[in-house]
Task: inverse folding
């Protein structure tokens, strides 16, 4: 086994850089390893360099100590939402969690997303989310407009655009208490990400679903389990994109559903001051 | 014979980025049963990292724009090496491809009159890029992903099965394209050999048409903006199947990647920063780009800071600032400034937007950049300058294809679209032309792949021997060769790091003959060691094994880049030779094709001098006269050889 540890950081020929080493230290990591049969936390002592994120350290463990450590990642820039895990119990993106947020003597514990079945090590089966995505009826284009004829004002697309910032990291789905410890709710509940998708389409200025007899507001309640949500805002708190899922998507959806169906939480929702969308 | 599960589809698309998904949508809409195979989860493709926008001459912001102007810009950007017919189709069809996205639910940023807004970008004469803040690629992927779901919902209504006619095999890798073993029908494609990453299980998809849409090769370089998937899989699969690669020496180094902290070195800083007004400065505070405007672009760029600054508000009476030169020019300039000792503390230059726009405008127009620097580098870009330097970003070279049909040359049934296909961008790609390329040629590849499958009289037969050979090849890392008794298996991660360092140092942004020859020696050595790349553990989601398999592809593609770069003794676009600094008009018509030295596709350990790749020179078709007529004679003289001008 090689002892090379410089997976990142040494200088490049093109521009001479060279900051490696300053402030390097050894950190203690505990990483969950196992599969569907079970598993346990495994201890690693591993070098940390200036400016690194948790994903860098996981990669170093992989390259030097545990070549078969399973982990998902793609962009390493907070744009794809692949490297979701729980770091010291909190759902986060590993690529956007700087090592500098931990004390040097703190043990950093990395475990797979708890709401989804483990495949291996840090990789979970996130199929639930793809199933739910299929259950939301798609955008319905307006019949009287051809390609190139769509006209929408910026202020009218702002709201849906906020929701389309979603990188589908599924941290909100993982943290939502409706399913986090209640497997039995998964059939009836789409989760924050896909309720937000319903809100996004409902607020789309040109969605013609209503003309086809589809009432998106009603389906949120009747088919996607909006009533289970009791607006604890856990989803909003873990969103790496800073989307105001509860305030801007879920509560408005509840308010609109109220004409059709009584929901006691709407009363509470109305009491909470809404933040602006910016 | 292996017991490997087999499935039958009409068209199989390898890759689920912009090109792959657009191809799949088209093939399915043509009536073909279509399978998509991708290494990551559905919706995570590298396309999500595209930031700036989609270039399409809709003329929403400046009505002077049209496809001819876009075509002209694209050829200038590519230094006239582009396959001109691809550039023409691309410029003509891009607006339709963008408008179509709106009918699938995309929400672009708007102009005041409610149309799709368009922004300025390097090398584009008019504001041309449809965008959503600086996350356009995400919008593109999500829209295509949701369109695929919409088609699956249709099938569910009609057949009670979401996957009746369109299925995504996520987290699966293709290791070999299978071909028919038939003297009568020649070498037609018969399917693809794949493994599931999650379980390690092998399976075969039998299909007459295969569309390669696997993206690029950046993971062979150390400093790169590319994600882990960019291991040149499609390039290698095509080579192994007998399809040649075109002009692999052209690799784009994006001028602005992050340089600090080390762990994020290479992550992209979007060109929109400059398109929206950001400027480049050296350690003296000087806007150095004014010193780097090459002759071919002299008339089109501002000569003073004052003129450049006026251009943002009055583009009709001023010329654009040189920060908006094509990427190859800006990347070389930054490299020179750093070498001359005028770099920033961490070995880049300064990119400043903080003194150019109010903080709230920066946060609205460049939200991901604001976020990225704040989170990863503790830099507030509304208050201070960023440090940036070149990063390996894109490969212009790729599978040689027929311009209209996206069919790979020489292998019936094989198609390619997007970054993996070569030719469209010539020697250098303009920003924004990638997303439009994915849509235009993704659609064409899907269309012609479906037609080809439909027109076949007999279905190609999968050759069992090839399946067995592919299975044995994929399992080799579990029983790595140890020629000398007691030799330790090689660590695939170490081999990968050495490969990245080699390509970065020896075949990087500035190239020299001696270094490239050295690179070829090192690649041969790495190839030998890669035979001993061993893995621990079992087949279930084992990244060490996956990397060991990807190494074959990276090594093949790296050799193509190094060999072609050594051969081309001129500097043009994304190929800069220190020992041959000028652009040579005679080289304009020369395309370099890479093919496997051993056409049987068996990768023997070959000697370093000979290698695995054979190069041939071919002459391109002359540019069609009506397209040439879009340029002034004085401009053409700079690019075309004498005999081309007077033909």
Result:
């Amino acid at each position: 086994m090689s002892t090379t540890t410089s997976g990142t950081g040494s200088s490049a020929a093109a521009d001479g850089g060279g900051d490696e080493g300053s402030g390097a230290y050894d950190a203690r990591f505990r990483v969950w390893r196992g599969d569907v049969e079970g598993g346990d936390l495994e201890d690693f002592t591993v070098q940390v360099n200036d400016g690194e994120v948790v994903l860098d350290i996981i990669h170093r463990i992989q390259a030097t100590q545990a070549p078969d450590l399973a982990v998902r990642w793609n962009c390493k820039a907070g744009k794809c939402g692949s490297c979701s895990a729980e770091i010291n119990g909190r759902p986060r993106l590993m690529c956007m969690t700087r090592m500098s947020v931990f004390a040097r003597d703190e043990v950093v514990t990395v475990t797979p997303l708890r709401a989804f079945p483990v495949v291996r090590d840090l990789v979970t089966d996130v199929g639930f989310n793809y199933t739910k995505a299929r259950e939301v009826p798609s955008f319905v284009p307006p019949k009287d407009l051809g390609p190139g004829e769509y006209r929408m004002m910026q202020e009218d697309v702002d709201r849906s655009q906020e929701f389309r910032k979603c990188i589908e990291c599924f941290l909100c789905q993982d943290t939502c208490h409706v399913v986090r410890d209640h497997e039995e709710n998964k059939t009836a509940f789409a989760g924050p990400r896909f309720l937000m998708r319903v809100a996004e389409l409902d607020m789309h200025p040109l969605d013609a679903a209503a003309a086809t007899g589809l009432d998106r507001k009603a389906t949120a309640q009747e088919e996607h389990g909006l009533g289970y949500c009791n607006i604890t805002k856990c989803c909003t708190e873990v969103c790496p994109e800073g989307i105001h899922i509860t305030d801007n998507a879920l509560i408005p959806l509840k308010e609109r559903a109220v004409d059709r169906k009584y929901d006691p939480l709407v009363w509470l929702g109305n009491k909470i001051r809404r933040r602006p969308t910016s | 014979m292996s017991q490997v599960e087999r499935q039958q589809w009409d068209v199989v698309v390898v890759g689920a980025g912009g090109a792959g998904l657009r191809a799949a949508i088209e093939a399915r809409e043509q009536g073909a049963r279509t399978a998509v195979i991708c290494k990551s989860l559905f919706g995570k493709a590298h396309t999500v990292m595209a930031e700036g926008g989609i270039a399409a001459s809709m003329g929403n912001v400046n009505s002077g724009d049209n496809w001819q102007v876009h075509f002209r810009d694209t050829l200038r950007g590519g230094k006239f090496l582009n396959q001109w017919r691809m550039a023409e189709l691309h410029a003509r069809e891009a607006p339709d491809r963008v408008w179509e996205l709106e009918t699938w639910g995309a929400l672009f940023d708007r102009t005041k009159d409610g149309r799709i807004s368009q922004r300025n970008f390097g090398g584009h004469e008019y504001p041309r890029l449809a965008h959503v803040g600086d996350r356009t690629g995400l919008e593109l992927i999500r829209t295509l992903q949701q369109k695929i779901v919409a088609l699956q919902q249709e099938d569910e209504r009609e057949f009670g099965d979401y996957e009746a006619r369109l299925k995504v095999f996520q987290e699966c890798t293709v290791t070999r394209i299978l071909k028919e073993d038939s003297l009568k029908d020649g070498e037609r494609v018969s399917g693809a050999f794949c493994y599931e990453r999650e379980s390690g299980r092998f399976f075969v998809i039998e299909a007459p048409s295969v569309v390669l849409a696997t993206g690029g090769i950046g993971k062979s370089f150390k400093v790169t903006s590319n994600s882990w998937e960019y291991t040149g899989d499609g390039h290698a699969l095509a080579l192994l199947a007998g399809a040649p690669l075109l002009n692999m020496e052209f690799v784009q180094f994006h001028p602005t990647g992050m340089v600090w902290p080390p762990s994020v070195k290479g992550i992209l800083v979007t060109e929109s920063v400059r398109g929206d007004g950001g400027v480049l400065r050296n350690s003296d505070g000087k806007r150095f780009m004014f010193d780097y405007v090459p002759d071919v672009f002299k008339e089109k760029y501002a000569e003073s800071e004052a003129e450049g600054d006026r251009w943002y508000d009055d583009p009709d009476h001023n010329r654009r600032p040189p920060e908006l030169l094509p990427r190859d020019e800006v990347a070389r300039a930054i490299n020179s400034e750093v070498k001359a000792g005028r770099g920033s503390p961490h070995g880049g230059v300064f990119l400043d937007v903080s003194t150019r726009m109010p903080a709230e405008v920066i946060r609205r127009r460049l939200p991901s950049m604001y976020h990225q620097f704040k989170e990863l580098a503790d830099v507030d870009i509304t208050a201070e300058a960023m440090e940036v330097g070149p990063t390996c970003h894109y490969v212009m070279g790729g599978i040689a294809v027929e311009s209209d049909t996206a069919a790979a040359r020489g292998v019936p049934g094989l198609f390619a679209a997007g970054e993996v296909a070569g030719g469209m961008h010539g020697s250098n790609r303009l920003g924004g032309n990638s997303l439009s390329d994915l849509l235009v040629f993704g659609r064409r590849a899907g269309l012609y792949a479906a037609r080809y499958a439909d027109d076949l009289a007999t279905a190609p037969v999968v050759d069992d021997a090839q399946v067995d050979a592919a299975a044995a090849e994929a399992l080799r890392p579990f029983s790595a060769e140890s020629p000398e008794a007691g030799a330790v298996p090689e660590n695939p991660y170490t081999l990968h790091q050495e490969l990245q360092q080699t390509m970065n140092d020896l075949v990087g942004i500035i190239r020299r003959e001696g270094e490239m020859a050295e690179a070829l020696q090192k690649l041969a050595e790495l190839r030998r060691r890669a035979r001993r790349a061993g893995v621990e553990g079992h087949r279930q989601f084992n990244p060490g094994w996956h990397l060991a398999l990807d190494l074959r592809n990276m090594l093949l593609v790296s050799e193509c880049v190094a060999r072609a770069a050594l051969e081309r003794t001129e500097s043009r676009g994304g190929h800069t030779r220190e020992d041959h600094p000028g652009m040579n008009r005679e080289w304009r018509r020369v395309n370099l094709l890479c093919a496997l030295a051993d056409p049987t596709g068996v990768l023997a350990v070959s000697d370093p001098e000979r290698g695995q790749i054979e190069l041939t020179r071919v002459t391109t078709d002359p540019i069609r006269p009506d397209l040439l007529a879009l340029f002034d004679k004085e401009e053409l003289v700079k690019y075309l050889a004498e005999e081309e001008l007077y033909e």
